[in-house]
Amino acid sequence: MPAKENLRPGGRSARVQASVHNAVRALLKNMDRADVTIPLIAAEAGVTPSTIYRRWGELQELLADVAVERLRPDMLPIDTGSARGDLEVWTEQYCEEMSSGIGRDMMRDVLAAQDNANACKCDAFTREQIALIAERAHARGEAFPDIDAVMDGVVAPIIYRILFGDQPSIERVRDLMTGVFAAMPTRQPQPASAPISG
Amino acid sequence: MPAKENLRPGGRSARVQASVHNAVRALLKNMDRADVTIPLIAAEAGVTPSTIYRRWGELQELLADVAVERLRPDMLPIDTGSARGDLEVWTEQYCEEMSSGIGRDMMRDVLAAQDNANACKCDAFTREQIALIAERAHARGEAFPDIDAVMDGVVAPIIYRILFGDQPSIERVRDLMTGVFAAMPTRQPQPASAPISG
DNA sequence: CGCTAAAAGCAAATAATTTGCGTTAATGGA
DNA sequence: TCCATTAACGCAAATTATTTGCTTTTAGCG
Question: pLDDT tens digit string along A2-22?
Fold first, then answer.
Protein backbone atom coordinates (compact mmCIF):
# COMPACT_ATOMS: atom_id res chain seq x y z
CA MET A 1 0.00 0.00 0.00
CA PRO A 2 2.57 2.64 0.76
CA ALA A 3 3.92 3.48 -2.63
CA LYS A 4 7.44 4.75 -2.13
CA GLU A 5 8.98 2.05 -4.32
CA ASN A 6 6.84 1.55 -7.37
CA LEU A 7 6.04 5.17 -7.97
CA ARG A 8 7.02 7.24 -10.91
CA PRO A 9 10.61 8.17 -10.24
CA GLY A 10 10.28 11.31 -12.29
CA GLY A 11 10.32 14.91 -11.18
CA ARG A 12 7.10 15.88 -9.50
CA SER A 13 6.41 12.66 -7.70
CA ALA A 14 9.88 12.49 -6.26
CA ARG A 15 9.74 16.13 -5.33
CA VAL A 16 6.51 15.65 -3.43
CA GLN A 17 7.88 12.68 -1.60
CA ALA A 18 11.02 14.52 -0.59
CA SER A 19 9.00 17.49 0.51
CA VAL A 20 6.71 15.34 2.63
CA HIS A 21 9.60 13.47 4.19
CA ASN A 22 11.31 16.74 5.02
CA ALA A 23 8.13 18.09 6.52
CA VAL A 24 7.81 15.05 8.76
CA ARG A 25 11.40 15.35 9.94
CA ALA A 26 10.99 19.06 10.58
CA LEU A 27 7.80 18.61 12.55
CA LEU A 28 9.12 15.70 14.60
CA LYS A 29 12.06 17.83 15.60
CA ASN A 30 9.88 20.52 17.14
CA MET A 31 6.82 18.82 18.50
CA ASP A 32 5.45 15.81 20.21
CA ARG A 33 4.76 12.98 17.79
CA ALA A 34 1.22 12.67 19.13
CA ASP A 35 0.47 16.13 17.78
CA VAL A 36 1.76 15.46 14.28
CA THR A 37 -1.15 14.97 11.90
CA ILE A 38 -1.41 14.44 8.19
CA PRO A 39 -3.06 17.82 7.50
CA LEU A 40 -0.23 19.45 9.43
CA ILE A 41 2.40 17.61 7.45
CA ALA A 42 0.63 18.51 4.24
CA ALA A 43 0.62 22.18 5.13
CA GLU A 44 4.31 22.11 6.05
CA ALA A 45 5.16 20.26 2.85
CA GLY A 46 3.01 22.49 0.68
CA VAL A 47 0.91 19.66 -0.68
CA THR A 48 -2.72 18.80 -0.29
CA PRO A 49 -3.61 16.24 2.40
CA SER A 50 -5.33 13.90 -0.01
CA THR A 51 -2.02 13.37 -1.76
CA ILE A 52 -0.59 11.97 1.43
CA TYR A 53 -3.64 9.88 2.17
CA ARG A 54 -3.56 8.36 -1.27
CA ARG A 55 0.13 7.62 -1.25
CA TRP A 56 0.66 6.42 2.29
CA GLY A 57 -2.80 5.56 3.50
CA GLU A 58 -2.22 6.43 7.10
CA LEU A 59 0.17 8.37 9.25
CA GLN A 60 1.91 5.29 10.55
CA GLU A 61 2.98 4.14 7.12
CA LEU A 62 4.43 7.54 6.41
CA LEU A 63 6.21 7.67 9.75
CA ALA A 64 7.60 4.19 9.12
CA ASP A 65 8.82 5.28 5.70
CA VAL A 66 10.60 8.27 7.14
CA ALA A 67 12.00 6.31 10.06
CA VAL A 68 13.52 3.60 7.93
CA GLU A 69 15.40 6.19 5.91
CA ARG A 70 16.85 7.63 9.07
CA LEU A 71 17.82 4.18 10.26
CA ARG A 72 19.77 3.51 7.09
CA PRO A 73 23.46 3.41 8.01
CA ASP A 74 25.32 6.37 6.57
CA MET A 75 28.86 5.17 7.09
CA LEU A 76 31.03 2.10 7.11
CA PRO A 77 31.69 0.41 10.42
CA ILE A 78 34.83 1.91 11.98
CA ASP A 79 37.96 -0.09 11.31
CA THR A 80 39.78 -0.66 14.58
CA GLY A 81 42.27 -3.15 13.22
CA SER A 82 40.65 -6.26 14.64
CA ALA A 83 37.36 -8.04 14.12
CA ARG A 84 36.52 -8.06 17.75
CA GLY A 85 37.28 -4.38 18.12
CA ASP A 86 35.25 -3.56 15.03
CA LEU A 87 32.25 -5.43 16.32
CA GLU A 88 32.61 -3.97 19.78
CA VAL A 89 32.72 -0.39 18.57
CA TRP A 90 29.93 -0.95 16.11
CA THR A 91 27.74 -2.65 18.68
CA GLU A 92 28.17 0.05 21.26
CA GLN A 93 27.34 2.74 18.78
CA TYR A 94 24.33 0.80 17.51
CA CYS A 95 23.10 0.28 21.03
CA GLU A 96 23.44 3.94 21.87
CA GLU A 97 21.63 5.09 18.76
CA MET A 98 18.80 2.65 19.25
CA SER A 99 18.39 3.33 22.96
CA SER A 100 18.11 7.06 22.48
CA GLY A 101 14.68 8.59 22.44
CA ILE A 102 14.89 9.20 18.72
CA GLY A 103 16.06 5.68 17.98
CA ARG A 104 13.30 4.15 20.04
CA ASP A 105 10.70 6.29 18.34
CA MET A 106 11.96 5.37 14.90
CA MET A 107 11.93 1.70 15.75
CA ARG A 108 8.44 2.00 17.13
CA ASP A 109 7.32 3.74 13.95
CA VAL A 110 8.79 1.00 11.81
CA LEU A 111 7.22 -1.79 13.84
CA ALA A 112 3.85 -0.13 14.26
CA ALA A 113 3.15 0.00 10.53
CA GLN A 114 0.85 -2.60 9.03
CA ASP A 115 3.31 -3.29 6.30
CA ASN A 116 6.42 -4.95 7.68
CA ALA A 117 8.59 -4.32 4.64
CA ASN A 118 10.30 -1.51 6.48
CA ALA A 119 11.08 -3.71 9.45
CA CYS A 120 12.70 -6.19 7.09
CA LYS A 121 14.76 -3.37 5.65
CA CYS A 122 16.06 -2.42 9.07
CA ASP A 123 17.10 -5.99 9.66
CA ALA A 124 18.84 -6.00 6.30
CA PHE A 125 20.72 -2.79 7.11
CA THR A 126 22.05 -4.29 10.30
CA ARG A 127 23.06 -7.50 8.62
CA GLU A 128 24.90 -5.59 5.94
CA GLN A 129 26.93 -3.69 8.47
CA ILE A 130 27.87 -6.87 10.28
CA ALA A 131 28.66 -8.54 6.98
CA LEU A 132 31.13 -5.74 6.23
CA ILE A 133 32.87 -6.34 9.52
CA ALA A 134 32.90 -10.07 8.82
CA GLU A 135 34.40 -9.50 5.37
CA ARG A 136 37.18 -7.42 6.80
CA ALA A 137 37.80 -10.08 9.39
CA HIS A 138 38.08 -12.76 6.73
CA ALA A 139 40.34 -10.57 4.63
CA ARG A 140 42.63 -10.27 7.64
CA GLY A 141 42.46 -14.00 8.24
CA GLU A 142 40.60 -13.63 11.51
CA ALA A 143 37.86 -15.95 12.64
CA PHE A 144 34.44 -14.37 12.87
CA PRO A 145 31.06 -15.68 13.98
CA ASP A 146 28.19 -16.27 11.58
CA ILE A 147 26.02 -13.26 10.91
CA ASP A 148 23.08 -15.14 12.35
CA ALA A 149 25.00 -15.79 15.52
CA VAL A 150 25.69 -12.09 15.89
CA MET A 151 22.08 -11.21 15.15
CA ASP A 152 20.75 -13.70 17.68
CA GLY A 153 23.45 -13.21 20.26
CA VAL A 154 23.99 -9.46 20.24
CA VAL A 155 21.51 -7.53 18.14
CA ALA A 156 18.33 -9.33 19.21
CA PRO A 157 18.94 -8.99 22.96
CA ILE A 158 19.72 -5.30 22.57
CA ILE A 159 16.60 -4.63 20.58
CA TYR A 160 14.42 -6.78 22.79
CA ARG A 161 15.53 -4.89 25.87
CA ILE A 162 14.97 -1.53 24.27
CA LEU A 163 11.51 -2.47 23.06
CA PHE A 164 10.39 -4.16 26.22
CA GLY A 165 11.44 -1.53 28.66
CA ASP A 166 14.94 -2.34 29.78
CA GLN A 167 17.89 -0.13 28.86
CA PRO A 168 20.75 -2.46 27.93
CA SER A 169 23.95 -1.46 29.71
CA ILE A 170 27.34 -1.22 28.04
CA GLU A 171 28.57 -4.01 30.29
CA ARG A 172 25.78 -6.30 29.24
CA VAL A 173 26.44 -5.55 25.59
CA ARG A 174 30.10 -6.45 26.03
CA ASP A 175 29.10 -9.69 27.73
CA LEU A 176 26.83 -10.57 24.86
CA MET A 177 29.66 -9.99 22.40
CA THR A 178 32.04 -12.06 24.43
CA GLY A 179 29.49 -14.85 24.50
CA VAL A 180 29.14 -14.86 20.73
CA PHE A 181 32.88 -15.01 20.21
CA ALA A 182 33.21 -17.73 22.82
CA ALA A 183 30.49 -19.85 21.23
CA MET A 184 32.17 -19.55 17.82
CA PRO A 185 33.27 -22.91 16.39
CA THR A 186 37.01 -22.83 16.99
CA ARG A 187 38.61 -23.68 13.70
CA GLN A 188 42.15 -22.43 13.70
CA PRO A 189 42.43 -18.77 12.84
CA GLN A 190 45.18 -18.01 10.34
CA PRO A 191 48.39 -16.36 11.62
CA ALA A 192 47.43 -12.72 11.06
CA SER A 193 44.79 -12.71 13.81
CA ALA A 194 45.38 -10.12 16.52
CA PRO A 195 42.82 -10.00 19.30
CA ILE A 196 42.53 -6.66 21.06
CA SER A 197 43.57 -6.35 24.64
CA GLY A 198 41.19 -4.94 27.24
CA MET B 1 -2.69 8.05 30.43
CA PRO B 2 -4.67 4.94 29.73
CA ALA B 3 -6.62 4.47 32.93
CA LYS B 4 -7.12 0.73 33.28
CA GLU B 5 -5.22 0.58 36.57
CA ASN B 6 -6.14 3.56 38.67
CA LEU B 7 -9.79 3.61 37.84
CA ARG B 8 -12.68 3.06 40.15
CA PRO B 9 -12.83 -0.66 40.54
CA GLY B 10 -16.55 -0.52 41.30
CA GLY B 11 -19.50 -1.65 39.25
CA ARG B 12 -20.16 0.61 36.33
CA SER B 13 -16.60 1.50 35.48
CA ALA B 14 -15.50 -2.10 35.49
CA ARG B 15 -18.56 -3.09 33.52
CA VAL B 16 -17.80 -0.54 30.83
CA GLN B 17 -14.21 -1.63 30.61
CA ALA B 18 -15.15 -5.29 30.28
CA SER B 19 -17.75 -4.43 27.70
CA VAL B 20 -15.28 -2.41 25.65
CA HIS B 21 -12.61 -5.10 25.85
CA ASN B 22 -15.13 -7.72 24.76
CA ALA B 23 -16.22 -5.53 21.90
CA VAL B 24 -12.63 -5.16 20.70
CA ARG B 25 -12.02 -8.90 20.86
CA ALA B 26 -15.27 -9.61 19.04
CA LEU B 27 -14.54 -7.12 16.29
CA LEU B 28 -10.95 -8.25 15.80
CA LYS B 29 -12.19 -11.79 15.35
CA ASN B 30 -14.37 -10.87 12.40
CA MET B 31 -12.70 -8.02 10.62
CA ASP B 32 -9.45 -6.55 9.51
CA ARG B 33 -7.80 -4.52 12.25
CA ALA B 34 -7.47 -1.55 9.89
CA ASP B 35 -11.27 -1.30 9.78
CA VAL B 36 -11.76 -1.28 13.55
CA THR B 37 -12.54 2.23 14.74
CA ILE B 38 -13.45 3.70 18.08
CA PRO B 39 -17.01 4.60 17.09
CA LEU B 40 -17.46 1.02 15.91
CA ILE B 41 -16.15 -0.40 19.16
CA ALA B 42 -18.36 1.97 21.11
CA ALA B 43 -21.44 0.83 19.21
CA GLU B 44 -20.57 -2.83 19.72
CA ALA B 45 -19.93 -2.24 23.42
CA GLY B 46 -23.05 -0.15 23.92
CA VAL B 47 -21.18 2.89 25.21
CA THR B 48 -20.70 6.35 23.82
CA PRO B 49 -17.48 6.99 21.90
CA SER B 50 -16.40 9.84 24.13
CA THR B 51 -16.13 7.42 27.01
CA ILE B 52 -13.50 5.48 25.10
CA TYR B 53 -11.69 8.60 23.98
CA ARG B 54 -11.53 9.90 27.51
CA ARG B 55 -10.37 6.66 29.04
CA TRP B 56 -7.93 5.42 26.46
CA GLY B 57 -7.09 8.47 24.41
CA GLU B 58 -6.56 6.66 21.17
CA LEU B 59 -7.25 3.36 19.52
CA GLN B 60 -3.71 2.11 19.92
CA GLU B 61 -3.75 2.40 23.67
CA LEU B 62 -6.98 0.45 23.81
CA LEU B 63 -5.66 -2.20 21.46
CA ALA B 64 -2.50 -2.47 23.55
CA ASP B 65 -4.58 -2.86 26.68
CA VAL B 66 -6.61 -5.64 25.15
CA ALA B 67 -3.58 -7.34 23.65
CA VAL B 68 -1.63 -7.47 26.88
CA GLU B 69 -4.51 -9.24 28.58
CA ARG B 70 -4.53 -11.85 25.87
CA LEU B 71 -0.78 -12.26 26.17
CA ARG B 72 -1.06 -12.97 29.90
CA PRO B 73 -0.17 -16.65 30.41
CA ASP B 74 -3.18 -18.63 31.48
CA MET B 75 -1.46 -21.78 32.62
CA LEU B 76 1.68 -23.06 34.29
CA PRO B 77 4.49 -24.27 32.07
CA ILE B 78 4.05 -27.98 31.38
CA ASP B 79 6.07 -30.22 33.68
CA THR B 80 7.99 -32.72 31.58
CA GLY B 81 10.13 -34.05 34.40
CA SER B 82 13.31 -32.21 33.46
CA ALA B 83 14.36 -28.60 33.29
CA ARG B 84 15.54 -28.88 29.77
CA GLY B 85 12.37 -30.58 28.65
CA ASP B 86 10.27 -27.97 30.43
CA LEU B 87 12.08 -25.13 28.74
CA GLU B 88 12.00 -26.81 25.37
CA VAL B 89 8.28 -27.42 25.45
CA TRP B 90 7.54 -23.98 26.80
CA THR B 91 9.79 -22.30 24.23
CA GLU B 92 8.26 -24.09 21.31
CA GLN B 93 4.77 -23.23 22.42
CA TYR B 94 5.74 -19.62 23.05
CA CYS B 95 7.33 -19.38 19.65
CA GLU B 96 4.28 -20.82 17.94
CA GLU B 97 1.90 -18.50 19.72
CA MET B 98 3.98 -15.44 18.99
CA SER B 99 4.62 -16.31 15.36
CA SER B 100 0.95 -16.80 14.61
CA GLY B 101 -0.91 -13.96 12.97
CA ILE B 102 -2.77 -13.23 16.18
CA GLY B 103 0.38 -13.25 18.29
CA ARG B 104 2.17 -10.93 15.91
CA ASP B 105 -0.73 -8.54 15.85
CA MET B 106 -0.95 -8.49 19.62
CA MET B 107 2.74 -7.83 19.95
CA ARG B 108 2.52 -5.07 17.38
CA ASP B 109 -0.37 -3.52 19.30
CA VAL B 110 1.59 -3.60 22.52
CA LEU B 111 4.70 -2.07 20.98
CA ALA B 112 2.87 0.54 18.93
CA ALA B 113 1.33 2.23 21.95
CA GLN B 114 2.94 5.43 23.23
CA ASP B 115 2.89 4.11 26.74
CA ASN B 116 5.31 1.23 27.07
CA ALA B 117 3.91 -0.05 30.36
CA ASN B 118 2.18 -2.85 28.51
CA ALA B 119 5.38 -3.90 26.82
CA CYS B 120 7.04 -4.13 30.22
CA LYS B 121 4.17 -6.28 31.40
CA CYS B 122 4.69 -8.71 28.54
CA ASP B 123 8.32 -9.01 29.44
CA ALA B 124 7.35 -9.63 33.06
CA PHE B 125 4.90 -12.37 32.06
CA THR B 126 7.59 -14.17 30.13
CA ARG B 127 10.10 -13.86 32.94
CA GLU B 128 7.59 -15.23 35.41
CA GLN B 129 6.99 -18.31 33.31
CA ILE B 130 10.69 -18.96 32.98
CA ALA B 131 11.15 -18.34 36.69
CA LEU B 132 8.61 -21.04 37.40
CA ILE B 133 10.56 -23.49 35.27
CA ALA B 134 13.75 -22.42 37.02
CA GLU B 135 12.20 -22.96 40.44
CA ARG B 136 11.12 -26.45 39.53
CA ALA B 137 14.61 -27.15 38.26
CA HIS B 138 16.17 -25.98 41.49
CA ALA B 139 13.68 -27.98 43.52
CA ARG B 140 14.76 -31.05 41.55
CA GLY B 141 18.42 -30.17 42.09
CA GLU B 142 19.00 -29.53 38.41
CA ALA B 143 21.20 -26.75 37.08
CA PHE B 144 19.38 -24.02 35.21
CA PRO B 145 20.56 -20.89 33.40
CA ASP B 146 19.89 -17.41 34.71
CA ILE B 147 16.60 -15.92 33.66
CA ASP B 148 18.49 -13.16 31.87
CA ALA B 149 20.49 -15.72 29.94
CA VAL B 150 17.27 -17.34 28.77
CA MET B 151 15.74 -14.01 27.89
CA ASP B 152 18.79 -12.91 25.91
CA GLY B 153 19.58 -16.29 24.43
CA VAL B 154 16.18 -17.66 23.53
CA VAL B 155 13.33 -15.21 23.95
CA ALA B 156 14.99 -12.16 22.40
CA PRO B 157 16.09 -13.89 19.19
CA ILE B 158 12.64 -15.40 18.72
CA ILE B 159 10.90 -12.07 19.19
CA TYR B 160 13.42 -10.21 17.08
CA ARG B 161 12.91 -12.58 14.18
CA ILE B 162 9.16 -12.40 14.42
CA LEU B 163 9.16 -8.61 14.53
CA PHE B 164 11.71 -8.10 11.82
CA GLY B 165 10.29 -10.41 9.28
CA ASP B 166 11.87 -13.79 9.76
CA GLN B 167 9.87 -16.75 10.98
CA PRO B 168 12.05 -18.60 13.50
CA SER B 169 12.16 -22.31 12.78
CA ILE B 170 11.76 -25.02 15.39
CA GLU B 171 15.29 -26.16 14.65
CA ARG B 172 16.69 -22.71 15.26
CA VAL B 173 14.78 -22.44 18.51
CA ARG B 174 16.24 -25.75 19.68
CA ASP B 175 19.71 -24.56 18.77
CA LEU B 176 19.21 -21.40 20.78
CA MET B 177 18.15 -23.42 23.79
CA THR B 178 21.11 -25.74 23.44
CA GLY B 179 23.37 -22.72 23.31
CA VAL B 180 21.99 -21.29 26.51
CA PHE B 181 22.39 -24.57 28.36
CA ALA B 182 25.89 -25.00 26.97
CA ALA B 183 26.98 -21.52 28.05
CA MET B 184 25.65 -22.10 31.55
CA PRO B 185 28.37 -21.87 34.22
CA THR B 186 28.88 -25.46 35.29
CA ARG B 187 28.79 -25.23 39.02
CA GLN B 188 27.76 -28.48 40.63
CA PRO B 189 24.04 -28.55 41.25
CA GLN B 190 23.45 -28.94 44.97
CA PRO B 191 21.00 -31.65 45.93
CA ALA B 192 17.62 -29.95 46.47
CA SER B 193 18.93 -26.40 46.82
CA ALA B 194 16.63 -23.74 48.28
CA PRO B 195 14.13 -22.33 45.80
CA ILE B 196 14.52 -18.72 44.79
CA SER B 197 12.38 -16.22 46.58
CA GLY B 198 9.78 -14.61 44.42
C1' DC C 1 -28.42 8.27 54.06
C1' DG C 2 -26.45 11.97 51.88
C1' DC C 3 -22.13 14.25 50.06
C1' DT C 4 -18.43 14.50 46.70
C1' DA C 5 -16.29 13.69 42.74
C1' DA C 6 -15.00 10.35 39.15
C1' DA C 7 -16.83 8.44 35.24
C1' DA C 8 -20.44 8.19 31.77
C1' DG C 9 -23.86 10.15 28.46
C1' DC C 10 -25.29 13.54 25.13
C1' DA C 11 -24.86 16.84 21.57
C1' DA C 12 -22.63 20.57 19.33
C1' DA C 13 -18.29 22.07 17.42
C1' DT C 14 -14.09 20.99 15.31
C1' DA C 15 -10.87 18.23 12.79
C1' DA C 16 -9.53 14.38 10.02
C1' DT C 17 -10.41 11.28 6.19
C1' DT C 18 -12.55 9.82 1.94
C1' DT C 19 -14.11 10.55 -2.59
C1' DG C 20 -15.39 12.35 -7.25
C1' DC C 21 -13.66 14.90 -10.74
C1' DG C 22 -10.81 18.13 -13.30
C1' DT C 23 -5.76 19.23 -14.10
C1' DT C 24 -0.83 18.50 -14.44
C1' DA C 25 3.07 16.20 -15.96
C1' DA C 26 5.98 11.76 -16.33
C1' DT C 27 6.56 8.06 -19.51
C1' DG C 28 6.82 5.71 -23.75
C1' DG C 29 6.08 5.30 -28.64
C1' DA C 30 5.69 7.32 -33.34
C1' DT D 1 10.08 16.40 -30.91
C1' DC D 2 5.42 15.76 -30.35
C1' DC D 3 1.48 13.26 -28.97
C1' DA D 4 -1.21 9.82 -26.40
C1' DT D 5 -1.69 7.66 -22.14
C1' DT D 6 -2.22 7.52 -17.48
C1' DA D 7 -0.24 7.99 -12.74
C1' DA D 8 -0.18 11.35 -9.48
C1' DC D 9 -1.76 15.69 -7.89
C1' DG D 10 -5.06 19.52 -6.45
C1' DC D 11 -9.46 21.02 -5.08
C1' DA D 12 -13.75 20.85 -2.78
C1' DA D 13 -17.70 18.48 -1.09
C1' DA D 14 -19.23 14.67 1.71
C1' DT D 15 -18.42 11.71 5.29
C1' DT D 16 -16.53 10.19 9.48
C1' DA D 17 -13.79 10.66 13.59
C1' DT D 18 -12.41 13.38 17.60
C1' DT D 19 -12.84 16.96 21.04
C1' DT D 20 -15.32 19.56 24.26
C1' DG D 21 -18.80 21.76 27.39
C1' DC D 22 -22.34 20.47 30.04
C1' DT D 23 -25.58 17.25 32.43
C1' DT D 24 -26.54 12.95 34.63
C1' DT D 25 -25.31 8.79 36.94
C1' DT D 26 -23.17 6.32 40.50
C1' DA D 27 -18.98 4.54 43.23
C1' DG D 28 -16.68 5.56 47.45
C1' DC D 29 -16.97 7.19 51.95
C1' DG D 30 -18.19 9.40 56.37
Answer: 444 555 566 889 999 999 999
